[in-house]
Description:
The chain is α/β, with parallel strands linked by helices. It folds into 2 domains: 13-107 and 222-263, Nucleotidyltransferase, domain 5 (2-Layer Sandwich), CATH 3.30.420; 111-215, ATPase, nucleotide binding domain (Nucleotidyltransferase, domain 5, 2-Layer Sandwich), CATH 3.30.420.40. It has helices at residues 46-60, 80-97, 106-116, 182-188, 198-202, 204-209, 224-234, 255-263, and strands at residues 13-18, 23-30, 33-41, 68-74, 101-104, 123-124, 129-130, 147-152, 157-165, 171-181, 194-196, 213-215. The strands form 2 sheets. The protein has a 7-stranded mixed sheet. Strands 3-2-1-4-5 form a 5-stranded mixed sheet, with helices on both faces. Helix 1 packs across helix 2 and helix 3 crosses helix 7 (224-234). It is globular and about 50 Å long. The chain starts with 12 loop residues before the first strand and ends with a helix.
Amino acid sequence: MKNHFLSSSSSDIYLAFDTSTEVGSVCICQNRKILNSIIFSGQGRHSADLLSKIQEVIDKEELTIADIQGVIVGEGPGSFTGVRVAAATAKGLCYSLGVPLWAVSSLRASAVSFDMYSEGSMHVNSEKQITPSDSTGRWREHCSPNICVLFDARGNRVYAACYRPKGSVGTETILAPHSTTIESILLACEVSTIFGGDGAHRHFDQICEAGFQVVMHPTGRPTAEALCKIVMDSGNKFRVENILAWEPKYLRVSSAERLKKEKAP
């Protein structure tokens, strides 16, 4: 296993991907620059599509898989199948190539996308719309610094995490990733918090009725580009030390596992 350290000035080429939600993404990055990226709709096909999308983005840059010097993966939570597919693919690639692995919360990647996609996006609720327009992609001063990302976990349940952007020094965690109910997370957040993610859109009316704002897509989706940005800004903070023992962050047992426990004598 290669024992190098990732840095923002590294000339090495990194592969990043996330399939924690219905929309998957893959990208190749080098020297803080995204060389190429692909966004694709999973529709339950991540297990069939991820490897072909990885090969596609590599081919577009006229590279080979052997050129990859590190892998960055969205570790969940989210779709059990999507998270499992990404984790297994990342571990397999790292072992076959002998390269290191970085694992980042898919919820954190979604929060970073608020900044990356802010130009031209809108915060919406039942009463008003705000369109940030500064070219740096920073939120206007009248917008809340707190971002709450929700992934749909069916029923009234969501995977949730809250963050506060801290400029060039990264993102501060306000509420760590956890499984909860929409009612509980609304009670836990400050009134000016901005919500995003597919869980926020699933519970759009309830969030707006509670007085919060919901940001429109594509802001709030986890992306491979956001994973790259997080790792490049954080060095080895998210590096996996023991790839063999590493597991993604499901945060809940699957429905199949729950049914199995209920049927057990």
